[in-house]
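Worked example 2:
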Amino acid sequence: MKKIIVSGANGQIGKSFQKIVFDWQEFEFHFYDKESLDIASKESLDAVFTKHKPDVFINCAAYTAVDKAETEREKAYSINAEALDFITAVCISNDTLLVHFSSDYVYDNGMNVPMSEKAPTSPKSIYAQSKKMGEEVIEQSPVNAIIIRTSWVYSEFGHNFLKTMLKIGKEKSILNIVNDQIGSPTYAGDIATAIMKILKQIESDPISGCQILNFSGEGKISWFDFASYIFEEANIDIDIHPIPSSDYPTPAARPKWSVLDLTEIKSRYGIAPKYWKESVKECIYLLS
């Protein structure tokens, strides 16, 4: 039975892994939140790895406060980049496969076509730069790793756009939503399931080196489209208006285009991401 450690257990993806453990009983899971495992501490990582001797380390821990990162630069880099020095080292010494999550924000390259893993990266915000630096730490080490770049993550857990819209929809009658940022909503539960399908496949064909894979929901929409569908499915009557990003300035720049090319994960592992509406509908049902 292969042992898996999941860090960031209380985040959206970490909670989603906890939800599906009974579907993957051939794996032994151990979940750690930020209080019980500090990924930026070599001593903390060594203690957990010594205790469990994991075959796989799934790093769901991350600094995700995109706007706060502009003023909390050191904290963002510590968690999203510098911690990967310790993580890769402990994974190498224990012959452990690393699964790490990155972001569509690392692209932000102005290309209005679905972006493959080989597309040029041009991270603009501190958050995006910290995520890209974390990727580079992994790529420059001899660790065996899978990096998943994903976008617009939502779930029934934690704080995210879908849950915020459901809350606001009950409190307001009029709402303005940005309509010139295009991407693909991604359900955290789908991410967790995709990772487990990949791990199952590589049991018999272990990977060597670092693989970068895109994963998101199928389809491309704006935040306005996303909100409109959420309100429609939740039967919320609200008057929403599309606005340009310039009317809703934020401390950190957001990519105008975040559509990921999913060809690689489909062809290499046979993963078929769901169309975004299907998973949104499922998540709303779970929250109702």
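The CA atoms of residues 103 and 149 lie 5 Å apart. The chain has nine helices and twelve strands.
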